[in-house]
Amino acid sequence: MFSSPVTPEIVRKFKYWQIRTLLATWVAYAVFFIMRKSISMAMPGMQADLGISKSQLGVFLTLHGVVYGLSRFVNGFIVHKFIARNFIVSGLILCAITNFIFGFSSTVLVMGIIWLFHGWFQGMGWPPNARLLPHWIPPQELATKMSRWNTSHCVGAVAILIAGGYLASLGWRAVFFIPAIIAVLTAVALWFLIKDTPSSVGLPELSAGENYKKSNDVKENSVEYNKFIKKQVFKNPYVWIIAISNLFVYVLRFAILDWGPTILKEWKGVALAKAGWIIAAFEISGAIGIIICGWVTDKYFSGKGARVCTITLLLASLFMFLFWYTIDSTILVSLFMLVAAGFCIYGTQSLILVAVSNIATKRAAAVANGLVGIWGYGATIITGILLGFMTDKFGWKISFGFLIILGVVGVVLLSFAWQAKATGYDELDKI
Hints:
Elements: H1 8-36, H2 38-50, H3 54-78, H4 84-104, H5 108-122, H6 126-136, H7 142-149, H8 152-167, H9 174-193, H10 210-217, H11 223-234, H12 237-267, H13 272-300, H14 305-325, H15 331-360, H16 365-377, H17 380-394, H18 396-414
Helix pairs in contact: 1-4, 1-6, 1-8, 1-9, 2-8, 2-12, 3-5, 3-6, 3-16, 3-17, 4-5, 4-6, 4-9, 6-16, 7-13, 7-15, 8-13, 12-13, 12-15, 12-16, 12-17, 12-18, 13-15, 14-15, 14-18, 15-16, 17-18
């Protein structure tokens, strides 16, 4: 497990710092997500108060998502040159500032520009975590433990979905102000709680054999490191297949997360506060799916996340179809279909991140996850502008059916990664 012989005291100390780091970063990413998805619960109020159309809101969602994806990709390179804690804390504070400014704004153009900056600052949240976690979790445990950690964004979404419905009763601006205050307080606490690597607190680094050590010895900013990144990420067909597939996973995810309260309110006639609870159930189910799918991957698929992703995305597409097909049924039926879909969608989304982290190895994990993020958040072009336009023109039934077709396309693409190995550590003989 470690790169050198250890004593029981070192093992105990490592366990303490591992748990502390995982919990602190878990909270951090949950708060990032609370701020990111505050707009979902504010949109009905913004439409009524400012007269913004669904097409305009779709532009907000798309531009924010595209900028966020680009930011994740760029910061995936930059974060290796800085202390990860500083990245996380700075990102939270900058997001809080833009949340405040957005909440005070009333002009569509100004709000759009501010939300673009917010998207960039949000992209400072995931890369440092993608860098930190493989340093604290051995590769043979990454699917299980990182999946548990990845419930952070589900908890953040649940928090804003439930609280946002009630905050919106005070005015849509409150949905932005309160999360911003929480983010500032969280950033202060995290400054004292997070450390980058085991060696930064006097502990030995993790190891999983000679090739794992080889990946750890590659120095950033070196010619060897650039060759390493090229081989493990940009010339790796499985990384590309999984990354592009993430587009279709996020199409299903964002269709519900961004538009879910509006879909239920307009298509199903559900009150906004109740709609928030229903989409919260979608997120809670997703958190359970993340944990169980990660455990199943390590236990029964020997860490081969791409295989589980193919199966779960197929099931997610099926349940989304059943939601669409039974939309005129009772709320209970719709709730069940969304809960089942959430379980599968989030299980897939989490395992995609785990799969590329292990295939790329820990030294290239942040870059690989940045590439995955670009494709994932490129989905906002579809779920933002395109979905808003299609719904204005044709209604929810047609636009939602189109999303299901895209989910099936993702299943077909992911199936081409079925043969991918669990990790890339045994393929580092030539860098």
